[in-house]
Amino acid sequence: MLSLLRTLWAVFLHAFRTRVTVQYPEQKAYLAPRYRGRIILSRDPDGGERCVACHLCAVVCPVDCIALQATEDENGRRFPEWFRINFSRCIFCGFCEDACPTYAIQLTPDVEMGEYHRKNMVYEKEHLLINGPGKYPGYNFWRVSGVEIGGKDKGEAEHEAPPTDLHTLMP
Amino acid sequence: MTSPYPVATIIGVLIVALSIATGLIWLERRLLALWQDRYGPNRVGPFGLLQVVADMIKIFTKEDWIPPFADKPVFVLAPAIIVVTVLMTFAVLPIAPGIIVTNLNIGLLFFLAMSSLGVYSVALAGWSSDNKYSLLGGLRAAAQMISYEVFMGLSLMGVVVLAGSFDLAKIVEAQRKMWFVIPQFLGFVLFLIAGIAETRRLPFDLPEAESELIAGYHSEYSGMKFGMFFVGEYLGVTLISALIAVLFFGGWLGPWLPPIVWFFIKMFLFICFFVLLRASLPRPRFDQLMSWGWKMMLPLALANTLITGAAVLAFR
Amino acid sequence: MSIAVPGNSVATIYIDDRGYKADPKQNLLHACLSLGFNLPYFCWHPALGSVGACRQCAVKQFKDEKDTHGRIVMACMTAAAEGTRISIQDPEAIAFRAAIIEGMMINHPHDCPVCDEGGHCHLQDMTVMTGHDYRRYAFQKRTFRNQYLGPLVNHEMNRCIQCYRCVRFYREYAGGRDFNVFGLRDQVYFGRQADGVLENEFSGNLVEVCPTGVFTDKTLKQHYTRKWDLQMAPSVCVHCGLGCNTTPGERYGRLRQIVTRYSREVNGYFLCDRGRYGYEFVNGEFRIRQARLTRDNHPRNITKAEVIERLAPLLAEGRQVIAIGSPRASLESNFLLRTLVGRERFYAGVSDDQFRLISTMIEILGGGPAHSPSLHEIELSDAVLILGEDITNVAPRMALSLRQSVRQEPMQIADKMHIPLWDDHAVRQPLQDAKGPLFIASPAATRLDDVATQTYRAAPDDVARLGLAIAHLLDDNAPSVPDLPSEAHTLAESIAQALKKAQRPLVISGPSCNNEAVIQAAANVARALCVIGQRAGLSFTMPECNSFGLGLIGAPPLSQAFKTVRDGAIDAIVIVENDLYRRAPVRSVDAFLSAAKDLIVLDHLLNPTAGRATLAIPAGTFAEADGTLVSSEGRAQRFYQVFVPEGDIQASWQWLRDVMAAEGREEGLAWEHIDDVIAAMAVAIPALAQVQQAAPGATFRIAGQKVPRQPERYSGRTAILANIDVHEPKPPIDPNTPFSFSMEGTHNQPPAALIPYFWSPGWNSIQATNFYQTEIAGPLRGGDPGVRLMDPTPDLQGKYFDQVPPAFAPSSDEWLIVPLYHIFGSEELSLSAPAVAELAPQPYLALNEKDAKRLRVQAGEQVTIQLDGMAHSLPAQIKAELPLGIAGLPVGLPGLARFSLPIRSVVEREITSPHTS
Question: What would the mean pLDDT of A145-151 be, rounded to a whole number?
Answer without folding.
Answer: 89
